[in-house]
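Retry 2 of 3 after timeout on previous attempt. Resubmitting structure tokens to design endpoint.
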């Protein structure tokens, strides 16, 4: 299973992106998904996790996970990234709001 999307299905891709403010690898994000925050913009499982459960697949790893190397991405990977959008300006809006506050 290959996943594309925004924070609705992001499972930690933004954790290793330098320079982004759109991160969820701190509390309270993910408090119902194990012992530590994983970078999910939710309390626990997201829609992609429920679909993979329904299909009897393992949890799909984040593309930016440092442990995913080589042919591992051929078995499915999550490309979703919080703060992403169709327009280039989408991520800049968040940065500008942060800088103005």
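Retry 2 succeeded. Sequence:
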């Amino acid at each position: 299973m290959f996943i594309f999307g925004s924070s609705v299905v992001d499972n930690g891709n933004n954790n290793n992106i330098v320079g982004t403010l759109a991160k969820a690898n701190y509390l309270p994000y993910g408090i119902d998904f194990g012992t530590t925050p994983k970078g999910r913009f939710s309390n626990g499982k997201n829609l992609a996790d429920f679909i993979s459960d329904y299909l009897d697949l393992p949890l799909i790893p984040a593309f930016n996970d440092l442990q995913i190397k080589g042919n591992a991405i051929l078995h499915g990977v999550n490309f979703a990234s919080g703060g992403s959008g169709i327009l280039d300006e989408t991520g800049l809006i968040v940065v500008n709001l942060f800088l103005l506050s």
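Attempt log closed. The chain has a mean pLDDT of 83.
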